[in-house]
Amino acid sequence: MDLKQFEADNCGSCRLASLIPDVCRMEDCCLGVDEAGRGPVLGPMVYGICFCPVSKKEELKDLKVADSKTLTEAERENLFHNLDQAKSYVGWALQILSPNMISTSMLQRMKYNLNALSHDTAIGLIQYALDSGVQLKEVYVDTVGPAEKYEVKLSQRFPGIKVTVRPKADSLFPVVSAASICAKVARDRVVKGWNFAEDLGQIDTDYGSGYPNDPKTKEWLLKYLDPVFGYPQFVRFSWSTAQTLMDSKAVTVHWDDDEEDGEKAAERQNNRSMLSYFSASAEADRAQLTHRFFTERRLKSLKSF
């Protein structure tokens, strides 16, 4: 798993993938989808898929894959190594979503919530497998939101593929467990080796779990809160945990438009509002003002005759 591409630019989204086994292009395959890092206030969220021929389900099960949350970091690393060694019939792909991308998506004018982002990421990875020639017949997904509604959405998006969406799918289906392990290993490695773009000096990398209720995580958030600039991009600033700390510990910012709309503020300051340039009267003003290029050459609009 080569993370250099994401490490070079860790403020966006990045896809990593294994080679596609030849057998996956020739035989009916099953695919599992799961994520790691949905809840933490620190670090990225990683979506993973893992796929193999339906005929190899038992062999995948024999690798002893399990829900990544029930395993130690060393056990996950060992199982990922085993999955990588089974590359003759197992393939995987990952989508790493940076904290910055998650936050800006959730806070943009047209809200893009975490469920919608999760659904679209999962759909994108399934489509990637299909575009790569994987002969998908079965897809198993850990639910995000209501399971039945999500299952219908995916079934409509991928007709001809049997889609199963279940809560705790990572503990029910080995192919989802495998996807869970791939995603979690990638997230752990990214967090451990995070490259801070901000000049923060010697960084304390003892973040704790990254979850908002972890005392170590809370301590880290308090330590690295800049009163003016807020948090480094390692923090999901759209999370209420981060917002609450910034509201209570950082410098208060007052915006003129908080108490009066743009038109009134412009009038009070004897300035022209931006909105006035798009009014009907502005159109008339522009019609009367002719560029000197035309006046010097005594050129007139045909509408003048």
From TrEMBL:
Give the enzyme's EC designation. 3.1.26.4
**Which CDD domains does the annotation name?**
RNase_HII_eukaryota_like
Record-level GO cellular component terms: ribonuclease H2 complex
InterPro entries according to UniProt: RNase_H2_suA, RNase_HII/HIII, RNase_HII/HIII_dom, RNase_HII_hlx-loop-hlx_cap_dom, RNaseH-like_sf, RNaseH_sf
Name any cofactors this protein relies on: Mg(2+); Mn(2+)
- Give the family per the record: Belongs to the RNase HII family. Eukaryotic subfamily.
Protein's recorded name: Ribonuclease
